[in-house]
Amino acid sequence: MSNVIFIFLRRMRRPLILLVLVYSVATIGLTIVPGQDNQGLPHFLNFFHAFYFVSFMGSTIGFGEIPYPFTDAQRVWVLISIYTSVVAWLYTIGSLLTLFQDPAFKHAITFQTFRNTVKRQTEPFWIICGLGNIGHAVIERLARNNVNVVVIDYDQYSLSTLELADYGGWVPALMADATVPENLVAAGIAHPDCEGVIALASDDTANLKIAITANQLRVNPNLKVICRSENQEVARNMESFGTNVVLNPFEIFSNHLGIAIHSPQLHTLGLWLTDNGETNLTKVKTPPTGRWVVCGYGQLGKSLEIILGKRKIDVTIIDPAPKDHHAPASSITGLGTEATTLIEANLATATGLVAATADDADNLSIIMTAKELCPSLFTIARLNSTDNEALFSAAKLDLVMRRDEVLADRILAIVDRPLVTQFLRLAHQLSKETVEKLMARIETATGNNKPISWRYTVGSPQTLAFNRLLAKGATLTVADLTKQANSLHRSAIPLLVVEDGNTHLLPEPSDQVSTGQQYLFCGTHNARRNSQWLCEDEELLDQVLHPDRASIPLIQWLSRIQEQRCPSMKKVINNE
Amino acid sequence: MNLEKVVFGFFILLALTVNFGFFVGDIDNPAHHHRYELYAALVISLITTILKFGDRSQMGAILLASSLVADLQLIVAVIVWSSATVSGDPLSPDSMAIIVSLSGGALVANMISVVLLVVETLMFRR
Q1: Helices (H), A388-498
Q2: Confidence at A569, pLDDT banded by 50, 70, 90
Q3: Which of A4, A12, A13, A54 should we substitute to test contact with B (largest number of B Cβ atoms within 10 Å)?
Q4: Are B36 and A28 within 8 A, CB to CB?
Q5: Is a pLDDT exceeding 80 seen at residue A516?
Q6: Would you identify the CATH topology of the domain A121-247?
Q7: Is A250-404 a CATH 1.10.10.10 domain?
Q8: Is the link from the previous residue into A67 a cis peptide, with omega within 30 of 0?
């Protein structure tokens, strides 16, 4: 708070001194200049009257001459005083207005307001550093899922677009350099409710600096640091500084594509469980297995070659300078925009094509040429600038690789759905049949709508009803957790249990529930609401678990009181 | 030499000297204490206060605080003087004693200001 006041005081020194001088000289003059009373005797104003007169003269040019009409000598002095005091006031007000227009002062005020807003926050929040297209995509997703974010960015223009976009919710923003620790502190890095920092700057070293600062200044021991990095070395450096997740959009996309080619079911399941704004279950067109042609051996080309290679998928590289870019020896020299290169790469026998150059025009041209040669090809293009979005959607590609979307989806998954992320990572262990069975279950459970997922930890304050029941020594099975009061509703599907760091995929209905377990479910909105009620409402839980018991609320209540009174009744529940 | 420093030191010293000039004399004798001197002491003290605005250092904070104390004492002294003479009566020795003792308090605050200024200057030299 001090900064604003100090700047204010410093700037107002001159005008204030001028005002004091003008007022004191005017007052002293009035006490010296002789006046006359009603009888014509000489009369001098005392300091009190003189100061009173000067005070209203300076601001309003007078109410009249007191206590007696002034003599000519007094009027001359008042005349001089009026002009000097008016000039002094104009100067003071002018300085005040200039001060409010001053960029440094304005910044001090916004900085202070921002810092206080963050300081007063009592709910968990995330800090986002860097607000490009990726930042916007991330904020949009997080705001949609009610995650609080604080934004720091260098660029006033980006922040203005944030204001216009109006994502709703709590999104305080500061125009500042996020690599300066002071600014990160203002954004709440040392706030106990700060869940984590997401460094999205396009400059990898800036992200590294943010990661180091976050690591040093955190108060919340579980603070997560998520960094974007497109450089392997910086990424490794970030990891050594306690960065939890380093995101490389090209790697993420290559991995997605690898999974989609290798196990399409898993890929579809992943799409169902991640939020992409759609409400229906979509059967996506899955990329075919077979040989792939990749045009451009840049960052995307390299990670595609490595990751698809690991999954034993053949990749043919086309690059204008394969030797300079250390491309494999079998690479074909060319841009890919002309038919001869594509024919040389045996496009006719390939099943898919990725236009992965850093130039949007080249990518489009590659896709156009390739489609003319073989129309059935599965086409993927890398979109580098969002300005060309319309062109790419008009080209009717099967898949578009957008850096911002790839990163934003991933960040949302890490921030808001840690268990879903974990589930999808572990789901590789499941057999193809199990995944298919699970998908069929989800489809029937949700009636072809997109499932939503939720989680809770048994033993936390949210699961009051379960806690009480377990404290009484009763047994609870996974099937009980998904029971419904109204059988018309479709039930929830338990996906994952985490207990003491051990994970267990797709728990059986007969598995026992114990305190400290964290559960992940998916299902409809109704199922989620039901699950919520079941967690909180002891009566409902009782009714669901023992449908044959007294159903009249009064008798139920009385019997529950009875149970609480006599300890011997506890056994009854145990045995049931 | 810095003109700003000269002005700063000048006003701090002047605040002390004028205040002292008003203070010396018999405590209850109105003939020994002139009203213009008290007025000048107040105005100079106010200007000194404004000059001390905006320094974030510890020394700056204490300098500003001592000035504010002097202002407060002198303003109370002026109010006492005005209220004692507002009916046109001459100043009574009792009121004079109050006013002079108040200005004595302001004198101590001004002395501390000057001492701090000298200490800061010496530290700067070293």
Answers
A1: 389-394, 403-416, 418-426, 432-446, 464-471, 478-481
A2: very low
A3: A13
A4: yes
A5: yes
A6: Rossmann fold (3.40.50)
A7: no
A8: yes
List of residues 6+ apart from A295 with CB closer than 8 A: A301, A318, A319, A335, A336, A353, A354, A355, A356, A357, A362, A363, A366
Q: How many CB pairs under 8 A join A and B?
A: 41
Residues of chain B found within 8 Å of residue A6, distances taken between Cβ atoms: 54, 56
Q: Could A47 and B82 be called an inter-chain contact, meaning their C-beta atoms sit closer than 8 Å?
A: yes
Nearest CA in chain A to B43: A24
The dihedral of CA B107, B108, B111, B112: what is its sign? negative
Which residues does chain A have within 8 Å of residue B39's beta carbon, measured at their own beta carbons? 24, 27-28, 47
Edge-first strand listing for the sheet containing A452-457: A452-457, A518-523, A493-499, A502-505
Whether residue A389 has pLDDT greater than 90: no
Element (H, E) at A40: none
- Identify the band that residue B47 occupies on the pLDDT scale cut at 50, 70 and 90: very high
CA distances, A321 to each of A326, A327, A334, A358 (Å): 9, 8, 8, 14
Domain with CATH 3.40.50.720 in chain A: 121-247, 250-404
- The DSSP-derived string for A335-394 is -SSSHHHHHHTTGGG-SEEEE--S-HHHHHHHHHHHHHH-TT-EEEEEE--GGGHHHHHH
AA identity, residue A567? P
Model pLDDT for residues A294-326, shown as the tens digit of each residue: 888 888 888 888 888 888 888 888 888 888 888
Contact residues, A window 409-438, toward B, CB-based 8 Å cutoff: none
From A121, A147, A126, select the one nearest A226 (Cα to Cα): A126
CB contact under 8 A, B85 and A13: no
AA identity, residue A361: A
Query: A2-101 maps to which CATH number?
Result: 1.10.287.70
Q: Express each pLDDT in A463-494 by its tens digit.
A: 888 888 888 888 888 888 777 766 555 678 88
Q: Residue A394 contacts by C-beta under 8 Å, 6 or more apart in sequence?
A: none
Residues 6+ apart with CB under 8 A from A214: A184, A189, A197, A223, A225
What is the location of CATH 1.10.287.70 in chain A?
Answer: 2-101
CATH superfamily for A429-545 is: Regulator of K+ conductance, C-terminal domain (3.30.70.1450)
Between A27-41, A49-63, A194-208, A212-226, the lowest mean confidence (pLDDT) is in A49-63
Mean of the per-residue pLDDT values of chain A: 83
Residue with tokens 């396009």: A202
User: At which residue do the structure tokens 């002026």 appear?
Assistant: B78
Residue with tokens 């010396």: B24
Q: Which of A174, A168, A234 is nearest to A203 (CA)?
A: A234
